[in-house]
Amino acid sequence: MRQDHNIILDLVEEKSRVLDLGCGEGDLLYLLTSKKQIIGQGIEVNETAIYKCVEKGLSVFHGDIDSGLNEYPDNSFDYVILNKSLQEVKKIGYVINEALRVGKKVIIGFPNFAHIVSRFQIFFGGKTPVTPSLPYKWHDTPNLHFLSISDFWGFCKEKNIKVAKSIYLGESDKISILPNLFAKEAIFLIEK
Predict the structure, then answer these.
(1) How high is the pLDDT of residue 131?
(2) Which of 43, 88, 105, 132 is most buried, taking the most CB atoms under 10 A from its CB?
(3) Can you name the residues that pair with 83 across neighbouring β-strands?
């Protein structure tokens, strides 16, 4: 099981209502459904990924999360998840506000672009970093925003978003010292 999926599995309470934004092929949604008996729904823009979700028996709708979640009333879900999809959206503030509107809690996971390996690649190689958590070259990356853990903390402070929990992941374990430098990924649980 992927480390980030395991952390999110621990964060989500059993039998919750969950909306997974940018759910990809539905691996996390399937895990939550089978292990936590959640009532889950996904939104994905990639049609091939949607077919994979349907093959797993998941409820997934074709949609672009940048256009908002107008079809969902306030507090429709216990959790809204944006795992490794936030850096790919165009309107981060709008998408997060919409997620906080329709969900009581929002789980956001993203690769830390300020990780030490990325910094070394930029400093010594003079090129955009390519790492296991950032596997794309500059010309074919789906990432539109290159955020760090410090950037996200600053965003939450500026927008008065409550961070209920933050977890920082290294290669195989959690990171507690200087996470903006040593964590490859971050997972935040935020609330209104």
Answers:
(1) 64
(2) 105
(3) 109
Q: Print the domain residue range for 79.
A: 3-113+147-191
pTM of the full predicted structure? 0.90
| Per-residue pLDDT band at 87 (split at 50, 70, 90) | confident
Q: Give the pLDDT band (50/70/90) at residue 142.
A: low
Domain count for the chain:
1
Q: How many CB atoms lie within 10 A of CB 155?
A: 14
| Residue 166 phi, psi dihedral angles, 5° rounding | -135, 135
User: 78 near 97, Cβ under 8 Å?
Assistant: no
**151 DSSP assignment:** H
Does residue 124 form part of some domain?
no
Q: Where are the alpha helices (DSSP H) in 37-182?
A: 47-55, 92-102, 116-120, 149-158, 179-182
